[in-house]
């Protein structure tokens, strides 16, 4: 198809979405590429924006089912198609698509119980700061493209076999590679957020890899970097999980999305694990923690019990409450997430918190309250 014909088809398609002409949308949808499907029209609105704000449910549902439609683009007023929805019926269509995938496969808000997600130290703040200072140096001395290339070659590509074993398909790897390629092509790290939130097992693998060393990361890696051939202007090999974390924590493009305030996370832990959390002790996160700004969202996740073999049935339902004070600790990813209703906040690895409250409840989730440590 010529460029002129493609442009004509896009205009017809966009107008059909504005006017609620489902038949024309169905006819033209297969003829448009990804760039055309997500092209901005008036007020920077995409076709999904205009169908959503006019309340054309049939068109919205059809577009949401298309793999090339980007739900996260903003119009001139800074609204995503979800935020532009005419009413709750249209919003429910977005939530229906966002909830596709099984809870056990994709629930970022409930932590796996066989991995230690926290370290406990009396001088937690100092250790956390040392780790963050160590990772920040990568962004000051190494160009972003070199960091992204090492994440691709040294981390994502070797992960392909593991993703295949989990899903018996290369689809997840293809989705992740697409976002990483977009980041490389644009020299922009924003697509890394989509890698984290897209419905694959990537976030599970990434967080498990980060948690393996936990807050011992800096000391272990510092010794490895004492090798005489080490150069601090070249990305370290085999450290893709830490390079990705360093970018999300430190790159300037994320500054306007830093978050301070209260965030919540649903957990399933044993009574023995619960007893280890005592008021006054300090912990350091070992990985990214998906939390929500919405209390009810996190509480509902905590109340859901897995019935799968080796699942979390019989464990305590616990709500973790975090008071985030350092802007770089919290990253508001709502506008990029395909789960906008969850109001997701990412808590960075190697963040230090002091336990300020422990409440054991019966009939409702127990609560553990954390306040971020300060210098």
Task: Tell me about this structure.
By secondary structure, the protein is an alpha+beta fold. The chain folds into three domains: 96 residues, Serine Threonine Protein Phosphatase 5, Tetratricopeptide repeat; 121 residues, Toxin ADP-ribosyltransferase, Chain A, domain 1, CATH 3.90.176.10; 131 residues, no CATH class. Helices cover 45% and strands 14% of the residues. It is built from 16 helices and ten strands. A hairpin with a 6-residue loop joins strand 9 and strand 10. Helix 1 packs antiparallel against helix 2 and helix 5 packs parallel to helix 6. This is NAD(P)(+)--arginine ADP-ribosyltransferase.
Secondary-structure element sequence? HHHHHHHEHHHHHHHEEHEEHEEEEE
How big a fraction of the residues is strand?
A: 5-15%
Report Rg.
22 Å
Unreliable parts: 98-106, 305-313
- Described by the principal axes of the CA atoms, the overall outline is globular
Roughly what percent helix?
40-55%
Spatial gap, N to C terminus: 61 Å
Helical segment count: 16
- What's the arrangement of strands in the largest beta sheet? 1-4-9-10-6-3
Structural classification: alpha+beta
Largest sheet: 6 strands, mixed
Counted up, domains total: 3
What key attributes describe this structure?
375 residues, alpha+beta, Serine Threonine Protein Phosphatase 5, Tetratricopeptide repeat, Toxin ADP-ribosyltransferase, Chain A, domain 1, 3 domains, six-stranded mixed beta sheet, four-stranded antiparallel beta sheet, globular
């Amino acid at each position: 198809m010529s460029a002129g014909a493609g442009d004509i088809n896009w205009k017809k398609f966009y107008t059909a979405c504005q006017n609620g002409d489902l038949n024309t949308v169905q006819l033209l949808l297969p003829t448009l590429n990804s760039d055309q499907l997500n092209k901005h029209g008036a007020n920077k609105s995409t076709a999904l924006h205009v169908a959503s704000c006019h309340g054309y449910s049939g068109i919205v549902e059809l577009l949401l089912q298309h793999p090339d439609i980007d739900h996260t683009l903003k119009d001139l007023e800074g609204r995503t198609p979800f935020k532009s929805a005419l009413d709750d019926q249209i919003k429910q269509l977005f939530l229906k698509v966002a909830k596709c995938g099984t809870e056990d496969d994709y629930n970022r808000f409930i932590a796996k119980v066989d991995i230690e997600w926290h370290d406990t130290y009396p001088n937690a703040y100092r250790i956390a700061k040392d780790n963050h200072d160590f990772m920040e140096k990568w962004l000051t001395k190494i160009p972003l493209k070199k960091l992204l290339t090492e994440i691709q070659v040294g981390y994502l590509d070797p992960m392909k076999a593991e993703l295949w074993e989990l899903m018996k398909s290369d689809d997840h790897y293809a989705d992740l590679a697409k976002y990483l390629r977009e980041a490389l092509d644009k020299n922009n790290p924003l697509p890394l957020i989509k890698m984290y939130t897209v419905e694959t097992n990537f976030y599970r693998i990434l967080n498990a890899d980060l948690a393996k060393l936990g807050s011992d990361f800096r000391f272990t890696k510092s010794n490895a970097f004492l090798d005489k051939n080490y150069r601090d202007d070249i990305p370290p090999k085999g450290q893709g999980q830490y390079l990705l974390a360093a970018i999300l924590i430190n790159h300037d493009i994320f500054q306007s999305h830093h978050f301070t305030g209260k965030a919540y996370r649903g957990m399933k832990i044993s009574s023995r694990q619960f007893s280890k959390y005592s008021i006054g002790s300090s912990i350091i996160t070992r990985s990214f923690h998906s939390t929500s700004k919405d209390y009810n969202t996190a509480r509902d996740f905590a109340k859901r019990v897995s019935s799968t073999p080796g699942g979390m049935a019989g464990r305590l339902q616990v709500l973790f409450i975090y008071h985030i004070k350092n802007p770089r600790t919290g990253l508001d990813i709502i506008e990029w997430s395909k789960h906008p209703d969850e109001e997701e906040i990412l808590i960075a690895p190697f963040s230090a918190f002091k336990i300020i409250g422990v409440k054991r409840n019966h009939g409702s989730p127990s609560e553990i309250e954390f306040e971020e440590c300060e210098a």
